[in-house]
# Entry
Amino acid sequence: MKSKVKLLTTLLCLSSVMPAPALATQDVKDPDVEKLISKITARTNELENEVKLLKTELKQLKQQRQPSKKTFKNQPVTFRPPKPGSTLRASKFSPCKNAYQANPCVPNYSALQPNVSNMAACFAHGSPVITSPYLGTRSEFDGSDLIVLNSGVNQDIHLLREIKTLTLLNQKEHRPTPDAPTLVLSGRIEAQAVASNNSSQNQTSSDFNLTNSQLDLMPIINSWVTGLMTFNYDNSMTTPRRISNSRIFVNDAFITIGNFCKSPFYASMGQMFLPFAGQYSSFMLSTPLPQQLGDVRERALLLGYQPMSNNGLYAAIYAFNGPSNTDIHDRLNINEGGANLGFKYHFCSWSFDIGASYISNIADAIGFQNNAAPTNVGFLGFGNTSLSEIIDHHVPGIDVHSNFSFGNYRLYLEYVDSLRSFAANNLNFNGEGARPESANIEGAYKFCLCGRPSSIAIGYARTREAFALNFPEQRYNAVFNISIWKDTIASLEYRYDINYPSDTFGGGNGPFGFFVPYFPGDIGRTGSQVTAQFGIYF
# Structure
């Protein structure tokens, strides 16, 4: 192009110099000369215009070859500094805003930013394995935004929101979206020291135990397809030596199709906790009684809707083949289903979430399938054998749940109820068909202690006609949580249980399908327990 410009420039110079002497000796009235002058003048104008265009194109090409000021080469990935005011086990809050800058006891993670090139370089050697949360971000100081600390219910929704966050982060940082599968890891290890006392028998017990070891694997196949596999270890004692029983099992495994950047609808299929009881994460170490009673984990198909703005109505429906059945046809087919409907709204420092759930047979809930009682007490739950799963009729269940938040205060309310009584020979309470129900209220306050996010919570729970399911009649508990080091939580909980009166009678389906009584050793007594737990999360 440069040679073309030089050639045109030379022609212009010759055309402007040569004609003048040559035409000086000619008769200006000669028609041929006049035509020649007109042609040369027109051609000169054309060449001048073409030279201007070429110069403009040349200037644009030079600008394009210059490196852009906005480049990601050798640019560090921006890590968000930790927010010590993040919510413990629940949602984010900020009572310790900017405490990591003002308080020298809290490390400043902004100094830990490594020199990492753009995200495309991270995928140069195949599919990456990264930890939760995603590459380029820092987790909250207490790890509350890690996948493993999400509520066990509605995990598919949490995962789709994680992918939406990653997509928006890539767009904001002008990073290419990877077209290869990505594996996100998250997990926990929790150890406890427990001391308990039975006031009626004046018996005490104490123990050190590894209560939870969990590994979550979240494969992101593409922008529309993801999944989750959760591996847990079993700390139950099936032999006198509990270390021999540390088996690993799959707790959850499901596939989710959805993209919250483009659609509010999603679908999940596999083994998962269904949206019935236990909708919210609890501050307590002990599982809330309504959740313990009504948790439903099944292999199901779920279809759901979530508002794109995160505010508004949400809904889900699901179907599965439940273990409890009335006959062989019921056992061999998809026989159960349910629905969840709610409304949530968040504005500034306050928010609320209110909803209700329905399930066609509450006998499929974990609390009914296994009452976690010693083997010598008779009735152990419907999940003991295939014969103990046979019931006279299905018993629908309902769950009402609400979550209120204002600043650093949080209030949980949940109520689980059976909509009809069981047959007396299937689940019995004082000689009649039992209709178990449970309610729980939990209040929490979040604050900053010595520059560390902390919280205290108190709760009260009550059950009715749940004697044969090994539930106390009343429970009082309180807990203190603190994150001393990043991605750790230290907790201290006190729990006080009041069992059903000594004249209570109950039982249910035995291993051969016949009624067997339930006779626990602590009936009519009270018990207290102090639990200290330390957990690490990644």
Q: What stands out?
A: The chain has two domains: 2-65, 99-537.
